From TrEMBL, chain A:
Belongs to the binding-protein-dependent transport system permease family. Pfam families: BPD_transp_1. This is ABC transporter permease subunit. GO terms for cellular component: plasma membrane. The keyword Transmembrane helix applies.
From TrEMBL, chain B:
GO terms for cellular component: periplasmic space. It is found in: Periplasm. Belongs to the bacterial solute-binding protein 1 family. The keyword Zinc does not apply. This is Probable sugar-binding periplasmic protein.
Length: 316, 420
């Protein structure tokens, strides 16, 4: 029987072990520190300063946060962006992930032909640049030359068409659905991979017991992939609260109409980099970024303590 | 999943700064920072060669960034000490902040600065008007560009008053061939810049109203401002269907494809239309409200150039800036970029007929700059941002003109205290 790894490392001279650790972990730690930890800490540090017109910076402690959350001029747009972000997230949870699960379930059906083709086609939008996605959907939904109006008219639903991207009531949900269209491939692939891991014997046994495809999926496969589904939910949460690019490319930094599509990302961008005549305010922008970080952190902690620990995993 | 945009932004800025650093200028050469990447060709093939006829030894590199990221990239390079010698100046506070941080030098001593009027220099002066820190290059004029063929077909002529304007629009609507007025509200600034700031100056008497607003003698809730909002609110029935989702690029295409009759325009649109539109075009100034006699146009100072205080080659940079004040530069600039009008006092002959028409309005109407630009967009909430937002909402019919004025004034009152 080969010697186990822990024995090997235990017998190693300390210097050699340290060298080994440095060799394997060093690059990752260095890169992660340089590009993730350092910017994060620097951002938090910057958020405790304010700058004067001559360019000098002064330490102000938590004053930026008091302004951001306590002064209606800042807190109103902030909470508006936050609640829009929640809607954005809710649409992804209610539309993207169920569709992703359903597609994965269909793809994993035995005897399905052209599996590879479907998989590729459905994953394709994920690899497109957001700018291209924004531009294409802008054209598709355009009331002037979009195909959406014509397509609806062709099936007798022409009266349902509206300039969705321009209306306060529908712009945010429309953008969220465009984002769903783009990223639905990710939950699909992750869950599909998890479904493939389920042993054939389980499925066969169920079939022998007389279950059809749908009930097999509902009662056997779905409970077994729940850990992956919760992982997908957490990835969606993090990605949605960091989202920015689609809104910026379709609606610009002012996220109109009347800030109906403003999410934390665009709010941060305006604060940090400015917009037209609004000068960028790096210190206040850092405060916004820090609050965004804590929102995501709190969300992740809730998930870890309330969900992750209760999930049962099955080993095959 | 997605990269976070913060990391992407940071990396981009760092890369830009690094590139700029590697290409840092040696003596005898100058580098120009600009957001006009559309014009790179004209700078390289016309403007710089013309300058080199006088000063063959000075090598000039035109190094533009994308307009959207210019301010951020420029600030990063100035802070990092890698910015070019000549800085293209945005109007008002963006450049004023650079001067206050001692990153731009004063240019008052330059030969030829007396060639510019006070209004021309206002966008690049300290609040007291004593120091100028950029040499004015050009302004843009707002008005309406129209399709001459459409006007001939429907049998209407250029409207002089708002009543005539509405009659023309109504006629186009009845005819049904053309979208009567091309403007969208999806990008918001169109409604503010080509709507409110375009027809508004006639109501608030241009510079008079602008100065009164800054002095606190007028409020945005006053009848003249509400009336301007009422006017743009009345355009909604004449805009293209689904104008709420019509972007600026959509508007440009709609008009240059010949599907629109009248286009709420900025003069910078001329060069785009020249390249694409196949029909004859004309332009008319904002039609006048009933009972007014003087006309005013939005003749907005938009672009200037200053010298980087940290430049190693200020001697040559100043020679270039002095050349910018000459009629020779003004003539080349005005004719290579129709729609950007030189600010020097010496009149310049413009060949493009639409551009010549628009610059001709300077003779009959009084010029003014956009009233939200000087001083009033310094605080939070930012007046210009608010103006984009409420103008789009007014045109969309989501906000009444009175409520729009009130929202703007309330926002302004929160931070702005006029000097007594």
């Amino acid at each position: 029987m080969p010697e186990s790894v822990s024995n090997i490392t235990a017998q190693m001279p300390r210097a050699k072990l340290a060298g080994l650790l440095l060799f394997f972990l060093g690059p990752a730690v260095a890169i992660y520190t340089l590009f993730s930890i350092y910017p994060l800490v620097a951002t938090m540090a910057l958020s405790t300063y304010t700058s004067d017109p001559s360019g000098g910076r002064h330490f102000v402690g938590l004053a930026n946060f008091e302004t951001l959350l306590g002064d209606a001029l800042w807190s109103k747009p902030f909470w508006n962006a936050f609640s829009n972000n929640l809607i954005f997230f809710a649409v992804h949870m209610c539309v993207q992930n169920p569709i992703g699960i359903a597609l994965a379930g269909l793809l994993s059906l035995p005897g399905l032909r052209l599996k590879g083709l479907y998989r590729t086609v459905m994953f394709l939008p994920t690899m497109l640049s957001v700018v291209i996605v924004g531009f294409s959907w802008n054209l598709i939904l355009s009331p002037l030359w979009g195909v959406a109006a014509g397509a609806l008219k062709a099936v007798g639903l022409g009266s349902l068409f509206a300039p969705w991207l321009g209306l306060e009531s529908s712009a945010l949900v429309t953008l969220a659905l465009i984002s769903v269209w783009q990223f639905v491939g990710i939950p699909m692939m992750l869950i599909y991979a998890a479904l493939l891991n389920i042993p054939e014997e389980l499925i066969d046994a169920a079939r022998v017991d007389g279950l059809g495809h749908f009930r097999i999926f509902l009662h056997i496969k779905l409970p077994l992939v729940l850990p992956t589904i919760s992982l997908v939910s957490v990835l969606t949460f993090v990605a949605n609260f960091n989202a920015f690019d689609l809104i910026y490319s379709v609606k610009g930094a002012l996220a109109g109409p009347n800030f109906a599509t403003d999410i934390l990302g665009t709010f941060f961008y305006r604060t940090f980099f400015g917009n037209q005549l609004q000068l960028g305010n790096p210190t206040m922008g850092s405060a916004v970024a820090t609050v965004m970080f804590f929102i995501i952190l709190v969300g992740l902690c809730l998930y870890l303590f309330l969900v992750q620990r209760r999930i049962r995993r099955y080993a095959f | 999943m997605r990269r976070t945009f913060k990391a992407a932004m940071g990396a981009e800025l760092a890369a830009l700064a690094l590139l700029a650093g590697l290409a840092s200028a040696q003596a005898g050469s100058l580098k120009i920072e600009s957001w006009r990447n559309d014009d790179a060709d004209i700078w390289n093939s016309k403007i710089i060669p013309a300058f080199n006829k006088h000063y063959p030894d000075i090598k000039i590199e035109f190094a533009p960034s994308a307009p959207k990221e210019y301010n951020a990239a420029l600030n990063a390079r100035l802070d990092g000490g890698t910015a070019g010698d000549l800085i293209t100046c945005r109007p008002f506070d963006a450049s004023l902040a650079l001067y206050q941080k001692r990153q731009l030098d004063a240019v008052d001593g330059l030969k030829g600065m007396d060639n510019f009027s006070d209004v021309a220099k206002a966008a690049w002066q300290t609040d007291d008007g004593k120091t100028t820190f950029c040499v004015p290059i050009a302004s843009v004029i707002a008005g309406f560009i129209y399709n001459k063929e459409a006007f001939a077909k429907v049998g209407v002529s250029e409207p002089k008053t708002l009543d005539e304007f509405h009659a023309v629009l109504e006629k186009f609507k009845k005819d049904g061939t053309y979208v009567p007025l091309v403007m969208g509200t999806a990008d918001q600034w169109e409604a503010a810049t080509m709507g409110f700031q375009n027809v508004g100056p006639d109501y608030w008497k241009g510079e008079v109203g602008r100065a009164n607003l800054i002095a606190g003698k007028e409020k945005l809730t006053d009848p003249q401002y509400v009336a301007a909002f009422k006017e743009i609110a009345s355009w909604a029935p004449y805009l293209g269907s689904g104008f709420q989702a019509q972007t600026y690029a959509d508007s440009q295409n709609l008009f240059s494809l010949g599907k629109g009759a009248i286009y709420a325009a900025g003069s910078w649109d001329i060069s785009t239309f020249r390249g694409q539109a196949k029909f004859a075009m004309g332009a008319f100034p904002p039609p006048q409200p009933a009972g007014t006699t003087d006309c005013y146009i939005s003749d907005h100072t938009d672009i200037a150039m200053g010298v980087n205080a940290a430049s190693k080659n200020k001697e040559d940079a100043k020679k270039f800036l002095e050349w910018l004040t000459t009629p020779e530069f003004a003539t080349i600039y005005a004719n290579s970029l129709p729609g950007f009008f030189p600010l020097a006092k010496t009149p310049v002959k413009v060949d493009d007929d639409v551009a010549a028409t628009m610059v001709g309005w300077r003779q009959t109407c009084k010029s003014t700059i956009r009233n939200s630009y000087q001083i009033l967009s310094r605080g939070t909430p930012n007046l210009e941002n608010e103006l984009w937002n409420v103008s789009a909402q007014v045109v969309n019919g989501k906000l009444t003109p009175d409520a729009a004025g009130k929202q703007l004034q309330d926002g302004l009152d929160k931070w702005y205290k006029p000097a007594k």
